[in-house]
């Protein structure tokens, strides 16, 4: 029930004093905390008790990586991975471009290591282009971008790693501590990868996303053998982004079950929802006399707490972080708190008797701990002001530690691999880029974001391969009962037939089935045929965390044996994949040319010999239009590098946030009525359960000869003097002629009035962008509000507009730097330079609409015969 902070502080302080006197055991359970200030506060708070411990766990655990380094390097650390320095990348089930550890950072690094654009210099340099091989069971975003993707069962990955270690040991003429591998595993693909890694010693990187200690020790051995430590893996300045300890979590659960814990404080985690036997964990909390949660809402765990003391949102409070050793960042409040919340640091301070503000706590810590680490500033205030202004502070490097690889750690591994029969099915539990471990499940933007691979929204499902579907006679949407090997866990989910999935794998996304998502029941519009996004009383999707296990005190996400049983019922999954797909008719190409594909693709070898490889001849199309569009000022254009684009969809969400695009609900998406202005088209070809994938962002192309403009009876869509295809909402009467005439299928019709009911909902809206009413067409505007703002600022300051000064939301949010926007009339601009690149082309250029958006040919480091074209 609702109370006041005064009452809560008084009651919790009394119980804390009681636990001190009774020598009670107190635990502070959190997710990874990167703030050194908060960690110090927690240590000081727990020091009041005779038995106080801070337990850290991550729902998306990489605990095995830290534990493996404790065995091989004598310190429990997470390396700082440097994909930009790697020339050969080999990943075993690590979705580092999607969900693994730090995907935004890794995407930027990955893109930096695969650059093809030639600078305007007389010296011709070879392109910098890493080779990427991906072994995985599910089809991940990272796997879809790999040069070589190998679909393997979860059980097979350890034996493949084992063989890779053996092959490299032979080349190094050194002892292999893991013994002989199974010769049948060492096929030509694995031998080729071993050869590439050996030839790039010190410039290779092997990563593994499986939370298994034995596998991670083998990975450490391989990276050490290749000399990758200190080059592509930095352990002198390790990462603090994942600090969870699965063993400590398992011990805590046992202590609670045994009734040994008197007080439990929970922050930044939801163990009742996302740990093995979470329901039982929730019931066991009743054995504790004081349970305090700092959750933002009454979730699965906080509903068992005696007190819920909601922490501020990160935009509402002062705080800091140390993401990498010695690199500190500062966060400051940008908005007033929406609710009756309080910073975690202030709550701890109050119960410790200090009663300081978050600002004072932060300053005191920096003055006592950060200021002495540096010599650049003589006054603390100077350090503080500089850090607040810049947002970060890079402390002087500490003396390097002398890490040495301990081979004895390798001798403790268990190399026994369970045998997989032909018909056995293994479960893979994975996070999606939108919801991760469920922390974003209450955000409708992210629920409605199409998965980059499956393109499904508002549900999770059981993905199976085409061959498995054929074997079990399962069709898309068939509800399956997935049963664990011991028969204790059963989950009913619709089937999704996923090309490229390993035939022995059943893949289910985590992060669904969250308490509170029942509020999305009526998120769509109310009309006669409307269907609810969520059935009344239900939540979005199902929680698959019940299949998690502790194996050797570590969270196991993949490899559990399961069985499938079809119920015969069909469930409707809403997918956007075929709503707006583009395909090119055979007879559209100009006379004498082959059909021009939507996505131009080539191999690195072909590109090296001919930078224009994979692209069609650049000949002006024949047109009946008069060239009457003369752009004497700015002429805005955009280019997207398909080699850099990973399909992560950050641009899709940023466009939605910037331009007040509503979420329409599952039923409307199913009716092809999603309103997102920017989409990512995913194309792939399947051959014997193997796929080749390509991603292409698609938005309004702002055509010079725009087909939409000629058919609008009320001149609602017109061309600006700066080359933008504009939409005048007040004129639009909703004929939808323009949408029918758009070859790119990028115009959206707003079927309904979408409510913006409460004040918080309205605060989400961008005040610089019109909120559209029902019955109008809408589409990408190239963020015209940002264009106007940039022009006005330059005029106010009496100067010309600088190239790159204006960035649309999609460009600003792209971690791969795949999008470039600018003035095509400015010959010194980056966009003008890119338009001269031999890889530059325009989609459907042959129909003569003169789009202002272009693409750069997709290049993979594949063999020549693997560079097929991707059709619609």
The strand order across the widest sheet is 17-22-19-21-20-25
Distance between the termini: 55 Å
Computed CA radius of gyration, to the nearest angstrom: 28 Å
Whole-number mean pLDDT: 88
According to DSSP, the number of beta strands is 38
Question: Topology of this protein?
Answer:
Elements (H helix, E strand, L loop, with lengths): L4 H17 L3 E6 L5 H11 L4 E6 L6 H11 L4 E4 L6 E5 L10 H10 L1 E2 L12 E2 L1 E6 L4 H5 L2 E4 L4 H17 L15 H12 L4 E5 L4 H13 L7 E7 L6 H12 L5 E5 L3 H4 L3 H7 L5 E4 L13 E2 L10 E6 L2 E5 L12 H9 L5 H13 L9 H11 L1 E3 L30 E6 L13 H4 L8 E2 L4 E3 L1 H7 L5 E7 L5 E8 L7 E5 L39 E3 L2 E3 L1 E13 L3 E2 L25 E3 H6 L26 E6 L8 H9 L7 H5 L8 E9 L2 E9 L8 H5 L5 E3 L5 E3 L9 H5 L6 E2 L9 H5 L13 E2 L5 H13 L12 H5 L5 E5 L6 H5 L5 E2 L11 E4 L1 E3 L12
Parallel strand pairs: 1-2, 1-11, 4-7, 4-9, 7-8, 11-12, 12-13, 17-22, 19-21, 27-38, 28-37
Antiparallel strand pairs: 3-10, 5-6, 14-15, 15-16, 17-25, 18-26, 19-22, 20-21, 20-25, 23-24, 28-35, 29-30, 31-32, 33-34, 36-37
Helix pairs in contact: 1-12, 2-12, 3-8, 6-7, 6-8
